Every structure is written in structure tokens, then in C-alpha cells.
Amino acid sequence: MKIQMLPSAAGGGLHQFLTTFLVNDRVAIDAGCLGFHGDPKDQVRVRHVFLTHSHADHVCSLPLFVNHVTDCGAPPVTLYGSAPTLESVRNDIFNGRTWPTLDRFSCDGVPLVRLEVLTAGRSVTVDGLSVTAVPVDHVIGTLGYIVDDSRSAVAISSDSRATEEIWREASRLPHLKAAFIGVAFPNARSELAEIAGHMTPAAFEREVAKLPPHVRIVAIHMKPIYHQQIEDELRGMGLRNVVAGVAGHDYVF
Prior knowledge:
This protein is an alpha/beta fold. The chain has a single domain (2-252), classed as 4-Layer Sandwich (Metallo-beta-lactamase, Chain A), CATH 3.60.15. 24% of the residues lie in helices and 27% in strands. The chain has 8 helices and 16 strands. The protein has helices at residues 40-44, 56-59, 62-69, 83-93, 165-171, 190-196, 201-208, 227-236, and strands at residues 2-5, 21-23, 27-29, 48-50, 77-81, 106-107, 110-111, 113-117, 123-126, 129-136, 142-148, 153-157, 176-182, 216-220, 242-244, 250-252. A 7-stranded mixed beta sheet has the order 8-5-4-3-2-1-16. A 7-stranded mixed beta sheet has the order 9-10-11-12-13-14-15, covered by helices on one side. Helix 1 links the parallel strand 3 and strand 4 (48-50). The chain is globular and about 60 Å long.
């Protein structure tokens, strides 16, 4: 399994302003920067997009992506998410004001876009991957995902406070190889992190302890203004299985 945290700044760069993870070049988790990815041929390969929640940094390029890849005769793009997230997509994005109501368009009777509500704990199989949604604790209803190709499993939770269920479910898999975990604020901003539904390095360390020691941990979703401070604090903890996420890098498991 190959996972890439798509770059969200022109020319790449250290900082991540938006969030998209691309799995095997074909399945996306979130669409913060998916609509800026590569060229049209790269984007058209992606027909399945799993949304964690409706915050702008996770969905803002979604209408651009859908516009780039929809075409008569092509399989429809399917957007997956919780019922509240997909309701936001309909009402706040494909509403005829922010963007045309593409979720209601069809060509020769085939919809251009499908919206599919996920049931927590129930797996969806797409492109040889089993994708399972698990609720995590953020300021609005948010999902993390466990992605499994039967040889390797990876858990992804970008926006969350301390949470339990996704790590409990992931730890049951003997072939769990990695977890991508968000850490947005430095320790000195712990009060703000709690209000915003995110973690500091100290909270992140407690999350890492919930997973088996062999699991590789990739720290993600660092707020750009605090990026270097967060990296320094993580490095100071001496967690041997933790690395800071690098945009554009292929993580292969």
C-alpha cells in the first residue's frame, strides 16, 4: 500500500495548509488539496473520496476536483462520509451559489457524482482496499479511517483530541503497519488545542502509547506557524517509531 500526503503549497514545501491523503494513486481521503494535484490525468484516476469532516481545509478543493474529473461516459465520482458531512457538501458547496449542484447532474441517466453515507464500523471495498470509518473526537462529527489491503493496514486520524475507538480497532489487526496522527499545536498551546479539538505533542505521545510498539507513526496536520516548534518537541520525546510527515513522500507499507 502506498500513501502520499499531497502537497498543498505551490512547489511543495514544508508546510501543509490543506489536507488530502492519496492511497495507491486512486483513493483519496479528504479533498483539501486534491483539486490541485498533479495534472488532469492524475486526478481522473481518483474515483473514490472519503471525507473525514466538512471543515474547509479538508474539502475546499472538492468542487474543483469534481469539475476536473467528471465527464459523460466516465464512472461517477463517489464521495463518502457521515450524513452530516455529506449534508454540508450538498448545502454549503454544491448549492448553486458556491458551486453548481453537480451532485444532481447526470449524463445519459448516469450521475456525475454519487454521495454515499458511511456507517461507522462497516467496511467499504474500493479498488482492492477495505476502508472502515471510525468516529474520532473533534469539534464537529469527524471520522478517522482504517485502510486495509489484507497485507497491510494503516489508520489515519488527522483532526482529533485524544480518542479511543480507532486505536482499539486498529490494534486488533495483526498486520497494522502505520498510523497517521494529527498534532496541531505545541505544548504551550494546550488550552487552545483542547478548544479546537486537536492535540499537542504531549497528548500525541499518550495516543502513540495506545498502539503496538512496532507500528510506525507519522505525525501530521501541524499548523504551519508552529511546525518547527512541534517537530522539535516531538524529537525531544525520543519516540523511536515517530517521524514527521513529509508532503509528497511515498509511504509504502
